[in-house]
Amino acid sequence: MPGLITMDDLTNEEIISLLDNAEKLLPVARGELYLPLLKGRILGNLFFEPSTRTRMSFETAMKRLGGDVVNLGDVKTSSVVKGETLFDTIQMVDGYTDIIAMRHPRQGAAQYACDSAKVPIMNGGDGAGHHPTQTMLDLFTIRQAHGTLEGLNVVLAGDLRFGRTVHSLSHALTRFGCNVTFASPESLRMPEEIIADLRAAGAEVNETTDLIGQISEADVIYMTRIQKERFPDEDEYTKVADSYKLHARDLDDAKAEMIIMHPLPRVEEIHPSVDSTRHARYFEQAFNGVVARMSLMCWLLGVNVPADVMSEGEVI
After folding, report:
1. What is the mean pLDDT of each run of 10 residues along the chain (316 residues)?
2. 29 and 173, same structural domain?
3. Burial bucket for residue 151 (CB in 10 Å: 0-12, 13-18, 19+)
4. 131 annotated active-site
5. 164 flagged as catalytic
6. Domain for residue 280, yes or no?
7. Do residues 159 and 224 lie in contact, with contact meaning Cβ atoms separated by under 8 Å?
8. Residue 1 placed within a domain
9. CB 290 within 8 A of CB 283
């Protein structure tokens, strides 16, 4: 069964089509229009790791489209603690649902689930691996701000070693001809295999430890949290915890249309002073998770988004 495990599961044409459909569905995501395209369908939310935005946006997306949701709930109160395998859990939920969103701490778990299931699997993050549904909402946010995905200067900053969001996003950006700069501490550099893949695909990859020096030429700055939970050694985390802190005063030379993004949650890497600047897009970005995932679920379930959503839906 087709699923979305990495961005390699989508062609560039499919990405653009999904973003176009997401644009159409904005009034539905905002609750201005009721359009039950997925009425009678059930989403299974299987989150083996903590989540706020991803889990809730999947749930909101399905309910806005008239469907329903069943949640795994706290792993500590599930049969996982009794020793149930991932295979058995997937087999069980496969029988209850029409589509599954899954987050798991183990890299590769989403592909394993996809190979085991009859219903489509959407990867909501697999360890330090991939997070393609996040990439779709990120691309939607960038296109909203700049009107295109082509040829932009994008700086990905912070934890590039463990950050699954930037692993998926870097591949997608270079497919659309963006110039990508990786800004990180030496110990949190983008993994060599990802850099090699990008260069093999013809992308120019720039690496630096100097985030502030990249601001004036950037169209997008994508900040990430230093992820304490990914570090096997707390001393190693302490050395890099405060590597980058972006303040409003750092943005004086930024382009007027430059946007700052963050997959959230943030800790101290973006100071609250940035929130009130014209560059801040991270809360809008979080909302876009709903509309992007609505578009994805319709696509994976074979449901067409009407060309004229307003005429098909019911105004609330």
Report:
1. 87 97 97 97 90 91 97 62 73 92 88 88 85 95 97 94 88 94 91 92 91 97 78 60 85 97 91 97 96 98 95 88
2. no
3. exposed
4. yes
5. no
6. yes
7. yes
8. no
9. no
